[in-house]
Prior knowledge:
The structure is a single chain. By secondary structure, the chain is mainly β. The protein has a single domain (7-102), classed as Thrombin, subunit H (Beta Barrel), CATH 2.40.10. It is 3% helix and 40% strand. It contains 1 helix and 8 strands, in the order αββββββββ. A hairpin with a 2-residue loop joins strand 5 and strand 6. The termini are far apart.
Amino acid sequence: MEVPTSPKYDLMKPVVTVRGFFNPWGVAVDDDIGFIYVTDWSIPIISIFSETGEFLNTFTNLIMREAWGIAIRRDKLYVTDTSVDALFYFQFDAGLHLVGTFGNGRGSADNQFDYPNGITVNIRP
Length: 125
């Protein structure tokens, strides 16, 4: 099967090359193109695979330390990080880039998380 192409993927540049996982945790599927995204919390990367399981690319940024939960909604990728107790959200447009974060340290007050390790999003508008 031919690997699908997408403006989302074409604009992404590999940051690191890792074959195999250390501690995979979260999985999300991009319904538009069938790509599978897998987080690995021990090495803060997101691995990207085709719908047939072929390794395509990896993605990371300088802020993530322990990427756990992952979800996709339209043109955004959401990742929870238990080390910095935050939610990161990235935009698929001119490449996959960080749009913002939510979370202000560990705790139970407003805008705080306590080891966020999962996320789900509603695909409806």
